Here is the input.
Amino acid sequence: MSDREYAISNWPDTKEIYEKIDKLLSSPLRPMKKEKMQEYVMHFMTKCAKSKAITEEAKNYIPGGVQHNLAFNYPFPIAIEKSEGAYMWDVDGNKYIDFLQAGGPVILGNNYKPVRDKVFELLSNCAPATGLFHEYELKLAKIINKHMPSIELFRMLGSGTEGDLAAIRVARTFTGKRKVIKVGAAYHGWSDQMVYGLHMPGTGTFEAHGIPSGCSCDTQEFFPNDIKGLRNLLEQNEKDGGTAAVLLEPLGPESGTRPVNYDFNKKVRELCDEFGTLLIFDEVVTGFRLGLGGAQGYFGVKPDLTVFGKIVAGGYPGAGGIGGRRDIMSCVASGVEGKKRAYVGGTLSANPLSCVAGYYTIKEIERTNAAVKAGEAGDKLCKGLQKLIDKYSLPYVVYNHGSICHLETSGLLLLDARKPNFLQELKSRAVMLNAMGAAYMAEGMVTLAGSRIYTSLADTDEVIDEALVKFENVFKNIEG
Here is the structure.
């Protein structure tokens, strides 16, 4: 077993990544050759006919035909029937390497038997939800505290969105301040106040349709790595009651799509201390995926509050929560107490099924060193992708933070919203990104929006080698 504790073997050169991204954005688009793209589209029409039929019918009953944003794929959603280990199979019998990992929560591999057996064992004796306490709530909270000592008290919820919403409410209750600052482009769920500065920094309420403007009047954003910009906001807010919290994804927005410098989190921590502001780490993706100590352990930075999601229930439903300092988390309440408390609830929060799955997932990560092994798979994949990019003289950018891998081909999410041709660029680059995602899927690989790849314990050298052959099938058919 490796003596490493964390998935990241070497911190990538952030400056070099941005230089490559700038070059990508200034270069002509390099999409698939039209004839090859037509071949891929025909593959879906002929080989995925059942998926097409099911999702077309679903449009009569479900908005857009699917219930989850990650399932919107070009030319139509694929209906999955089976998942096991490193693979998934659709209703037509097509096999895929699963690099989506349900958006990040699966690190042990699909339908991991040791955890599944514990879930079945629980369900043979107990309902999946009872509305009352279960011992696994305690076991899960204790094992999280063991690996992340900053989590003195932990409250499980139903999703990462709920976790972020609750963390902000707790921060405001504890500090008595209103303002919350996030890093532009970061995703912290879809609550009214957080649909602000999504996907690209500087966009503010651009995507806040159906949300009254007052909901985000106390939400602010600053650009990734702009420590001076953060200081300016904190100083301005001091004149208006101060800042309750700074909320960030520790790798950078969208799981490091816009990566931050290694010392970024440390500098933000120092500013928060200076201004009496709480620091909230959104570890919805990084918690346990980077290592048992999360991003906070890797960077050696102690947040005041941590938001969990995804992996805290091992990919089973009910994945979310908040934890942190005892004095801060003591503000959390759900009943009528007549005291100043942050109201936080959830009928299915911390249900027995979620808690047993989360507890044994973390136990298995301990036993197998899954985070490190998944990170090694990410290293191998990215090194292979870089060789292919060089071989075919492509402007694409690839890098990884352990098992969180980024493959930028169109640079869609790296656009500058302040530039006059922003909307025009947005459309053309989105078309290319959708096409690239479809090409990967036609070759037998599921990715997140064609630009993010999550590796897992199940991704052996053989799986990565298989994937690199499939990626080369795509790259050798790119327009010159």
